[in-house]
Amino acid sequence: FVRSSRYSRLAPFSSLLSRTISTQTTTKLFINGEFIESQASEWIDVRNPATQEVVTRVPKSTPHELNEAAHSAQHAFSEWRRTSVLTRQRKMLDLQHAIRNNIDRLAESIVAEQGKVLSDARGDVLRGLQVVESMAGITEYLLGHKIEVSADMDTYTVREPLGVVAGICPFNFPAMIPLWMFPVALATGNTCLLKPSERDPGAAMILAELCDQVGIPRGVLNIVHGSHDTVNFLTADKRVRAVSFVGSDKAGKYIYERATQNGKRCQANLGAKNHAVVLPDADREHAINAIVGAAFGAAGQRCMALSVAVFVGDTIDWIPEIIERAKKLRVDGGMEQGADLGPMITPEALKRAESLIQSAIDEGANVLLDGRGYKVAKYPNGNFLGPTVIDDASSSMQCYQQEIFGPVLTCVHAKTLDDALALVNANRYGNGASVFTRSGACARRFQTEVEAGQVGINVPIPVPLPMFSFTGNKGSFLGDTNFYGRSGVSFYTQLKTITSHWRHQDAQAAEERASVHM
Length: 518
Ligand code: NAD
What we know:
The chain is α/β, with parallel strands linked by helices. The protein is about 40% helix and about 20% strand.
């Protein structure tokens, strides 16, 4: 493979990044170990959601650049797949160290591009870092099976990498979601084409720089940018064997269908509407705190945000207290000390959330706390939506049907646990659901009967740590093999089963031949 001479080697990325923060520079491609200025004719502005200042411009990669990236990944695969598992394990150990040393830098980039508050941005990095740490155990994950099936005959399995795999990411966790994908892909011996969200690619670029720093070979991780055309390339190019997607329903269904029709494996994590069922025997203080944090934190832009609270029986009386706590949350720029939640990602996302709040009023719900028109003096241009509480919603309303993806809690009432379960199970999504109760029996019933892939018992956001996998179901997931953990390793590997026959008597003959030659 000859590196393209069209591209000139650029200044180290660290200096580019510092310019990125203060001036309107461009986000580079990362192809074959080089940070490359795109030759694209179309660019997307990334604006700071608190100020609307252009932080960077992201290219829509050209067909030539996409082809170069795929070529580089394919070329790198032939060597990378032959590295020993211990070498790849060591790279993961080095990478986790490098990420840990750069948490603040990554988090600051996330705040500038995505808007979340600094503590959430650190959490974004840390949750991804845990996946890298888990990949230090890749030697265990890749162990195969072996059995003697008859005399002198063994059957055993090995897990082999697929080849070039692609990752397509959403805006809401700019570090964590790329880290759900490429470390698992690389540790299992694949090479990767990663497309960060065009709205906040900065963290992925820093991660690419860190991969380079720890000596992950050229071409093993490549970063391409863009939107539809890039996605179309990644889901059709013959060199790409598998596609991991996290994002909205619309894009996910399109990507899943296109990738699988083109013969690729695909795992797609989609939208969500996560319910918290509050039973009258719950610890009131704990449940209220948990709901407030999980509904409004990160401005509700989490796929596991608790966006619906189902108050069973008398617990509807707890709503005023939830509103009081929500009012006390500080909505501010992400770098401001004491900020609890930042702005929404774009003016369009804000407008959409605001119109869903209006639809709740129009359809007969009560908006008990209305965060529309929220002003933050220091950031007059920010996409701010204050915490919003909609009460008396019914399951036919838009505010209940749609994923609002903002700091909006929709409250519904139920008479019994049965009613609550029926409501949750009728919802088309199945990412997460939580129950708040002191009764083991109720919790166990909820856990057994609820149709959601990730269940919290007195836990508001039950995202599994990476010794498990992220297991959304129903309308929140397409595919059959989940992200990270054992499932993630299965997704990025294929089994080979070998049956070998080494006859006992041949050993004797070989020994005799050897003794003749001595
Ligand atoms: P999005 O679907 O708009 O974008 C995700 C990716 O798909 C981006 O890289 C984008 O370039 C691409 N894309 C967008 N529209 C496309 C189209 N029409 N055709 C082809 N590609 C397209 O998602 P987002 O707004 O960035 O992220 C928010 C969504 O992601 C929410 O719905 C949230 O629930 C979901 N999400 C889900 C999980 C999960 O694990 N279930 C985790 C995080 C986010």
